[in-house]
Design goal:
Helices cover 36% and strands 18% of the residues. It contains five helices and two strands; from the N terminus they run E-H-E-H-H-H-H. The protein has a two-stranded antiparallel ribbon. The mean pLDDT is 88.
Length: 96
C-alpha cells in the first residue's frame, strides 16, 4: 500500500460455505490490486481553496500509506496522522 493501492485477497470454498459452517474449507486463489484515485479536478479544487486561505483537511478510514499517497496526489502534502496519533496528540498538533 506504499503507492496507494488497496489489495483484496480472494478465496473460494468447495461446496456451500453457509451449510458447511465451521467445516468449510477455503482455498486462497489470488490477490486483486485496486487503485481508487481522486477525481481529476480535486487537486485544482484544493489549490483554489488554499488560495482563498481555506485550510483543507482530509479524514479517511484508509491505511496511512493509502492516505499519504492520496494526500500527495491532491496537493495536501504527506504529513499524515493516524487515528491513534490524533487521539494521543497535544492540542497544538490537533490544531495544525
Amino acid at each position: 500500500s506504499d503507492n496507494g493501492y488497496k489489495t483484496i485477497g480472494i478465496t473460494v470454498c468447495e461446496g456451500d460455505a453457509r451449510e458447511l459452517g465451521d467445516y468449510a474449507i477455503w482455498k486462497f486463489v489470488g490477490l486483486i490490486p485496486l487503485l481508487d484515485p481522486p477525481r481529476h479536478d480535486t487537486k485544482d479544487t484544493i489549490a483554489s481553496l488554499h488560495h482563498a486561505c481555506v485550510s483543507v483537511k482530509m479524514i479517511t478510514g484508509d491505511h496511512s500509506n493509502v492516505a499519504k499517497e492520496t494526500a500527495r496526489l491532491v496537493g495536501l502534502g504527506t504529513n499524515i496522522y493516524t487515528g491513534e496519533d490524533m487521539r494521543n496528540a497535544s492540542q497544538e498538533v490537533k490544531k495544525e
